[in-house]
Write a structure and sequence with these properties.
2 helices, about 0% strand, rod-shaped
């Protein structure tokens, strides 16, 4: 189950990185196009809409990032506990073989 969570986090992180690289360039290209063509009203509306979308995505991303850091911390704790169990079992096996 932890592997599935880790794979999901990797996929989500790649999607966020892709969006972070492409969306600003697409938005800038659209704004330059609106300015070039002379669509002043659409340009102004795009600036407002872009600001609102940027703010909304920023807040959503922040909460997503916090949740993923929390999940990763839990996975690290679970992994440490499993290693402690393995260590204890190996010590018991070693002790049994000595006896």
């Amino acid at each position: 189950m932890d592997d599935e969570k880790a794979k999901k986090i990797i996929i989500e992180t790649k999607l966020w990185a892709f969006a972070a690289w492409t969306v600003p360039f697409v938005a800038l290209a659209a704004l330059f196009f609106f300015e070039l063509v002379g669509w002043d009203d659409l340009y102004k509306q795009s600036i407002i809409a872009g600001g609102l979308v940027f703010f909304t995505v920023s807040v959503f991303w922040w909460w997503w990032a916090i949740a993923k850091v929390s999940q990763l911390a839990k996975m690290f704790i679970d992994t440490r506990e499993k290693f402690q169990d393995i260590k204890t079992n190996l010590k018991d096996i070693h002790k049994d073989y000595k006896d």
